[in-house]
Amino acid sequence: MVPRLKSWAKALVPEEYRLLRYEWYERLRYYPELFVSLGGRFECPFCHWRFRRMRSAGFDYVVLREKDVVGASCHPNDVCPRCQSNARERLVYLYLQDRSSVFSEPLRVLHVAPEPHLGRELRQVPGIRYVTGDLAQRWVSVRLDVMTLPFPDNSFDLVICNHVLEHVFDDQAAMRELRRVLRPGRRAMLQVPIGRALEDTVEDPAAVTEADRVRMFGQRDHVRLYAAGDYMRRLAKAGFRVELGRAVDYLGEETIKRYALIREEPVFSCQREP
Length: 274
Fold this sequence. Notes:
Elements: H1 2-12, H2 15-18, H3 20-37, E1 38-43, E2 50-51, E3 55-57, H4 62-66, E4 69-70, E5 75-79, H5 87-99, E6 108-112, H6 116-123, E7 129-134, E8 142-143, E9 156-161, H7 171-181, E10 182-189, E11 194-195, E12 202-203, H8 210-217, E13 224-225, H9 228-238, E14 240-246, H10 247-258, E15 266-272
Parallel strand pairs: 6-7, 6-9, 7-8, 9-10
Antiparallel strand pairs: 1-2, 3-5, 4-11, 10-15, 12-13, 14-15
Helix pairs in contact: 7-9
């Protein structure tokens, strides 16, 4: 009876109104949770507040545990209680600070499905040409489909496109487009969830229902679950030279602990081949 009532509710009540309950829940929990979370164990590099704990995030689906998925599974200290940044956004920000020149010289940057806090930091860089794009978000510079980007060849010095390709039906077309708009020798950050227990990427065009996708890929709007080696081969086929390392290899133990990052998260730094 309960599932039937839920189905009726979905059919009768527009989604924007159904989602209001989550918005009000977040508003009501914000200040109490912020107060009890304060401490000195972790720091957020965006808002610079310090906490004894952060909010957990991620999913606990069977496939995520079985395939040891980094980038989607539950993480106990993930979301900043004050500004709501998450661990993967903090990782990309700190990696770019340490391993790129984007915060020290004017570059042309394309940010697909832009993370809000990282985007705010990039907008503040003097002289940067910062372009945001997304298929659904209304506040971006350009509404776009990553499989057919509306930019000329060699348009950007840096492309940031994180946790997007696992949603895209033709990821090879998207990878080729991202390479096309990147200048030769320049880099792209193309993070995706990775199943560390996988040897081959899992995908099935017949998995079209939310239940099938959760069971196979660990999220209702994902269309595949990548294995690291296969993901790198796909990127190479599209024309990228890929450097793979763990978050801790690039940033060190102290940074991982201080900013509540996922120590073993793979980082894919992709350079466009000429």
